[in-house]
Amino acid sequence: MTNHNMSDLIEEYIKQLLEEEGLVEIRRTDMADQFQCVPSQINYVINTRFTVGQGYHVKSKRGGGGYIRIQKVELNHHGDLLSELEDWIDQKLSVKDSMAILQQLYKYDIITKREANLCLSLLSSDALKLLDKTTEEKTRACMMKRLFERLRYEEKE
């Protein structure tokens, strides 16, 4: 082997599996045994080298039958618009502004009318009524940014 560190080797192995299968489901302890390292090393590699920003969707389930599932995703062709809208959102977002954003997403065929209406329901003041006004607007902004992050990527089929 060449002069690679353990993290590089683990990353290369997972990427090779992804190339062959498209979807990888691993057990952290099994990988740690295979590479003769601690399980936290596997976590480190996954958390730093298989992020949404790098084009991966990671799902994990803890416990005895737990697993880590990694899937390659592709950048959505509306990524620039979504980035602009996300930059426009400050730390707080009003219901009125969230409505306007969802209308833009619908207008550009990024989401369907049904999806826009579902998002409106979730972002409404009624849905967040247990929160004070400032916390409500901060929560709405966070939820909208999370929506943008997810919309930027389409799962590869």
UniProtKB/TrEMBL annotation:
Residues 5-74 form the CtsR N-terminal HTH domain. Residues 78-147 form the CtsR C-terminal dimerization domain. Keywords: DNA-binding, Repressor, Transcription, Transcription regulation. GO terms for molecular function: DNA binding. It comes from the Bacteria. Signal peptide: none annotated. GO terms for biological process: regulation of DNA-templated transcription. InterPro entries: CtsR, CtsR_C, CtsR_C_sf, CtsR_N, CtsR_N_sf. Pfam families: CtsR, CtsR_C. Coiled coil: none annotated. Belongs to the CtsR family. This is Transcriptional regulator CtsR. It comes from Vagococcus humatus. The lineage of its organism: Bacteria, Bacillati, Bacillota, Bacilli, Lactobacillales.
